[in-house]
Design brief:
The chain contains no helices and 24 strands. By secondary structure, it is mostly beta strands. Strands 1-22-19-24-17-14-13 form a seven-stranded antiparallel beta sheet, with no helix packed on it. A seven-stranded antiparallel beta sheet has the order 2-3-4-11-6-9-12, with no helix packed on it. The protein is globular, with a radius of gyration of 18 Å. The relative contact order is 0.20. About 4% of the residues have low confidence.
Length: 267
Amino acid sequence: MKSRRIKRIFSGTEFSAGAGVRLIRYFDESGAGEMNPFLLFEVIDSDNPEDYVRGFPWHQHKGMEEVTYLLEGRIEYSDSMGNDGRIEGGGCRWTVAGSGIMHREMPQPSPRMRAARLWISMPARKKTAPPADCEIWPEMIPVIEKLGVKVSVVSGEYNEVRAPRRCGHARTTCYDVEMDSGARWEIYTPPCETLFVHVFSGVVSVCGRRCAAGRAALLSAGGKLEVVAGKGPARFILFSASPLKEAAARDEELRRSFAQSDDGCFV
């Protein structure tokens, strides 16, 4: 089976969002064509509450899914469907905006706030579906440990172990992977899915290329993915989903037509 390779490494750009949350943005809709169906990815990582406590007050989303995965800290949440709750460290909130939803996410002061935020485009036929909200508590997430590698299955399936809930329409896979120094992790993925990783800590070799903390990497089409940890422990998150063979919102010119590449995947 053909191995994946790194197509592009993102270093990220400092950005202010919401009411003044300082974060690192790796890509957004303006350049998300090659990331289809993913529209935006950003990370909050700070030990200073002033960087994030102003949060994301009431705002609207439509026709997309928003994923907030929290490594450390706490975020309080409310939405226009009457839901009130919180995301705890190690937990996830998966919002399906569908026909439209108003919500707010307000990070609370903590010794450290670390969160990954992802937007995913929805298929055109699903964009008018009723909005929905999915909570995934830390204790719900299955964890598989073997040979110095710990995989938390937030969404999707790994080694016949399924995530606690299927959230959203995009059938997105999400793994939180922690590796001991020198550990090796090899998996086989659907060849035509868009797959990217973000390294939270340490250094890893992804399909033979170095990727350090604070970097995100987009992988080419292919089935085999191999990651090797460097000297010291490492942690990264992996997202994977099938691209939509249709134009994404605000991305019409990039997705006017689709061609099939040599590996059989649409580009």
